[in-house]
Design goal:
Length: 126
């Protein structure tokens, strides 16, 4: 069982930057696929970004490409989502996730991820 603990987020202004963190309880995630999703009120979780830490490949939703970046600190066993040039439409609850080792695709749906963080609210005020 892998536990993911998120930190970061909060209330920011348009154009600001925020970094979300996702610390894992197991080092097995260092070779897994991890992702970030967000959820708007009354909506399903939507894909934001994913990374395969074995290959180094990353994928981003079109809506965040060039503004959001996913990275990892192996020493801290922590994944990050750096969010730049934030817009009001980025306001959502953001979740990190980790997949079991046999799940390697970067376009996995939320149902294919096994482990989830508790979520972090990001509110972008204009």
């Amino acid at each position: 069982q892998v536990q993911l603990v998120q930190s970061g987020g909060g209330l920011v202004q348009v154009g600001d930057s925020v970094r979300l963190s996702c610390a894992a309880s197991s080092r097995s995630v260092a070779s897994s696929v991890q992702g970030w999703f967000r959820q708007f009120p009354g909506k399903e979780r939507e894909f934001v970004a994913a990374a395969d830490w074995s290959s180094g490949d990353r994928a981003y939703a079109d809506s965040v490409k060039g503004r959001f970046f996913v990275d990892r600190d192996n020493f801290k066993n922590t994944m990050y989502l750096q969010m730049n040039n934030l817009k009001p439409e980025d306001t959502a609850v953001y979740y990190c996730a980790a997949a079991r080792s046999m799940y390697r695709r970067l376009d996995m749906t939320s149902e294919e991820y096994a482990y989830w963080g508790q979520g972090a609210q990001v509110t972008v005020s204009s």
